[in-house]
Design brief:
Strand order of the largest sheet: 1-2
CATH topology: Four Helix Bundle (Hemerythrin (Met), subunit A)
Strand content: 5-15%
Distance between the termini: 27 Å
Order of helices and strands: HHHHEEH
CATH architecture: Up-down Bundle
Largest sheet: 2 strands, antiparallel
Number of strands: 2
Helix content: 55-70%
CATH class: Mainly Alpha
Length: 158
Amino acid sequence: MNTLLDHFAASFEGIHSRSVSLVEQCPDEMLFHRPKQLGYFPALYSCGEFIVRSVANVEMTFGGITRRLWDDPFEWTLAETIGSKEKVLEYFSEVRKTTEQGFAFIGGDENLLREIPAPVALRPIVDVLLESLCMAEHLQGRAFALFQLLSDEPPPRL
């Protein structure tokens, strides 16, 4: 019985589902539109950039767990590279497969305390998953907030 691993899998699936819903609800012209930049405020990113960074964080985590590739997929997740809804959703689908492979690789709850080089120091897999889940949800929350601010509509609910 994999109670914890199933909980993690459901949480990452929730991130995927909410990300897809947001992209589908977001108008094309707004997806990568950056709000007005204010000199006294940190740089703002677009709704699309935040949601893609959320999913890229998940990709980096599971690429690290399964292949020890802790590279940030920054270059192929730029708005210039995947600047349409179709390409964004295609990328999300690829990351979903990587996530499924990652959970298959972990195997069961008994392996969550196994340490892996992540990426600099040895850390238990459970710590890596928790950190990734928190970061992905944080970035997703920023995308949802920006969507609501720019569109004056509530973000998608699942």
